[in-house]
Design a protein that fits this description.
The protein is an alpha/beta fold. Helices cover 30% and strands 22% of the residues. The chain has 2 domains: 5-32 and 291-420, Beta Barrel (Lyase, Ornithine Decarboxylase, Chain A, domain 1); 41-283, Alanine racemase (TIM Barrel). The chain is built from 13 helices and 18 strands. A hairpin with a 7-residue loop joins strand 14 and strand 15 (364-367). Helix 2 (41-54) crosses helix 4 (81-91) and helix 4 packs across helix 5 (101-109). It is elongated and about 75 Å long. It starts with a helix and ends with a strand. Bound molecules: pyridoxal-5'-phosphate.
Length: 421
């Protein structure tokens, strides 16, 4: 069922006893600035279930279903990490991935019980917090073994503290080199309180399929990774759960799925940009997704601007005709990318209308001349869906040379998230 932006906002405001500015007789303390991110938990659950089904094709006849580690770092790609993790746990997610201890603790505080992997690991001194909150550390340097082992020993108890090992297979970012596996195994042998329960790597270019060095990189990373896994096994170390695949690899490289996959972008409804671009259509057919977030704001002011007058900072927009300019209560301080100024559009009353002038921290101007009914109070969709119309974040991201996750993560703290079914 499609609910209009207005229906969702009204339900929200009525539920919390709030009303739109200007509709009540006496001022209320709970009236708020009209900018919000609508997060569809129905779409999120749909995406999760589609991914789980996709990576567990019946013809594979696995004994146990392949696991899903839902990436909820970066505040759940801007959707609200704890809330998203809670909904995904209910939907059956096996694991969660966050970047740091603080994000992990926030997910735990929301009541999530499934394992939480701390992808960017810990810095010295932080390891006790990690152990206390039952968060699974990633080790990406051999020296971290001793630190985590000491914290695990201080915690006491018979059960060893689990951790995952990250292998740098060619991204040259985080992880131990495949050639350091022997050294790692030797040091692990001295750790009485730790247990390796998983091993993984991260692909640098799994979305690239060109006949170039970058197009070959995923294959090479895989080979290096499995080489390291085999060496570890030969040294008598059980690597535990093996995982590699991010969104692009999940959709297009079934040979990388291993024991568990780690979807990020696709959970939130967006396929990554493929190279060549034509692959997107095929990917969308294979795994249809629903965008989860719609970022919206209302027109709070409207003015008639004569032809030739400048609009906004530095007068970078000068209309050629008499124009009606609406002012939205959202700017780059809310997460509207500043480079959309004079370039992007918003959805208003089912139509695309241009963003004009430089985007300010708190407001954005739109040219509504071609939408004669537009009025103060109208909700505009900056990206997402509105009824059957859509202005997708991946399209917006591409138009300004960035990636969808950049736009989604940019939605700032002062923007309330409204969770709808
Ligand atoms: C280790 C790791 N795994 C998985 C992901 C998910 O990536 P994507 O959003 O491409 O699915 C990320 C995101 O950067 C990551 O850092």
């Amino acid at each position: 069922m499609w609910l209009s932006a207005d229906a969702v906002w009204m339900a929200y405001t009525i539920f919390f006893g709030r009303h739109m500015a200007g509709t009540q007789k006496s001022p209320r303390k709970d009236v708020r600035r009209p900018v919000w991110a609508e997060v569809s938990l129905g779409a999120l659950t749909h995406n999760f279930q589609s991914i789980r089904k996709y990576v567990n094709p019946p013809e594979e006849k696995r004994k146990t279903p392949r696991k899903i580690l839902s990436i909820v770092k970066g505040n759940g790609y801007g959707h609200g990490g704890p809330e998203v993790a809670k909904a995904l746990e209910k939907a059956g997610s096996d694991w969660f991935g966050v970047t740091c201890t603080d994000e992990g603790i926030a997910v735990r505080k929301a009541g999530v019980r499934k394992p939480v992997l701390i992808l960017t690991s810990f810095v010295p001194g932080e390891e006790m917090r990690l152990v206390e909150h039952d968060l699974t550390a990633v080790l990406h340097r051999c020296e971290q073994l001793a630190l985590l082992d000491r914290a695990a020993g201080r915690r006491g108890g018979k059960k060893r503290v689990p951790f995952h090992l990250k292998i740098d297979t060619g991204m040259n970012r985080l992880g131990i080199a495949a050639s350091d596996v022997e050294c790692f195994a030797r040091q692990l042998g001295k750790c009485k309180h730790l247990e390796l329960t998983g091993i993984f790597s991260h692909f640098a270019s799994s979305e690239v399929f060109t006949n170039t060095a970058v197009g070959q990189q995923t294959r090479e990373q895989e080979e290096r990774f499995y080489g390291a896994v085999e060496r570890l096994r030969a040294l008598g170390v059980d690597p535990g759960i093996i995982h590699l695949a991010n969104s692009a690899a999940i959709v297009t490289r079934p040979e990388t799925w291993a024991d568990m996959v780690r979807p990020g972008a696709i959970l939130y409804g967006y396929h990554p940009g493929y190279d060549p671009m034509e692959m997107r259509e095929e990917a969308e057919k294979r795994l249809p997704l629903k965008p989860v977030m719609s970022l919206r704001s209302r027109i709070i002011s409207m003015r008639n601007v004569p032809a030739g007058a400048g609009v906004g900072y530095n007068a970078t927009f000068v209309p050629k005709r008499p124009s009606r300019i609406g002012v939205l209560a959202a700017g780059y301080g809310d997460g509207i990318h500043r480079s959309l100024g004079n370039r992007g559009n918003v959805l208003l009353r089912g139509k695309l209308v241009p963003i004009v002038g430089i985007i300010s921290m708190d407001v954005t101007m739109i040219d509504v001349t071609d939408v004669p009914d537009a009025e103060i109070g109208d909700a505009a969709t900056i990206y997402g869906t509105d009824g059957t119309a859509s202005l997708l974040a991946n399209f917006v991201a591409r138009s300004i040379g960035t990636v969808t996750s950049d736009l989604l993560c940019a939605v700032s703290q002062r923007v309330p998230r409204l969770y709808v079914l």
